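Q: What would this chain look like folded?
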Amino acid sequence: MNKFDEMLRRDDLWFQVAITVAVLVFFSVGIGTLIALFAGSTASISDRIDIVYKLGLIGAGLITFCTVVWRGLLATQQVDAQRKQIEKLSSQIAMTEESNLAALLQKGAELISDDSKPGYVSAGIATLRAVLTSPNPKFAVEAMDLIADFIQANYRHSQAGVGYESASAALLAGERLGRISDRTLVFEAPADESGDMTYWVPVHGVAGVAYFGGDIIGYDFRVAAPVKARFHHVRIYGDDVVVTPRHAGCTFERCRIVAIQDDNAFERNTFKDCDFSNAKLNVSRVAITDLRLQGNYFSPDKPPYSPHDIDWLLMLETAPRSDVDEIPF
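A: My prediction, written as structure tokens:
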């Protein structure tokens, strides 16, 4: 904006112009009226008065124009002033809110660190959940990191407990808002299981999850599959499964194999009593592996699909075994 434009936007300039024009019009009309009345012949007095009247109208129009511009600039300045006040107030509110969130974050961290007092832990998780679900996402990731660290420190070998349920629910609430922790969680089944089974459930709201050992129910992970989950030597029971390179050393039992997306799936994993009907083998090669001894099968009218020429009868049975153990859940 140049200096001329800035000058035209000054409300005091237009006010001064309006006053000046009004004074000039007043004196011009006054003098013109005197001249019209007392100068020249009386025969043309009406013509002279008409001229003065028209000049007065023009002057009044100029005055109106200047005052309209002046009032418009005043209104604009008032709106700008109100906008600046609102922006300043909003900034102050945001700063206050961020300060409150920072205080809640610190308080939540203190509460969950005292795992000897379950009540404090529950209050800490609730406090951090309030931070990570706040409309202001300033400290959301930090709150989710604290909750993820709490899970890793206290539930690495088992996901059982009220504290875990509250913490995982808080992470899920954050993920639903598009907020993700930077942490990667690792769960390991205890080495001395003593025959007891360790069941894993999906974890959300973190950068990644790795499961070592233990057992999962396929349905849980099909319906609520965690992002970037990896499975190592995990037993997977039932339901539809897509086998990917994220499965290593896993045992699939009583599953319906929907697709295989890993060239080394048969070498790296074990399949037991699985249904391969209509399974899609999206791989560059297929190693002919006899899966019949483990009771794997397909329906003759629904053979697996593969771009390679494979005799499925050399790999799979055509019916499930009759003496299959019940799935342990």
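The CA atoms of residues 102 and 137 lie 11 Å apart.
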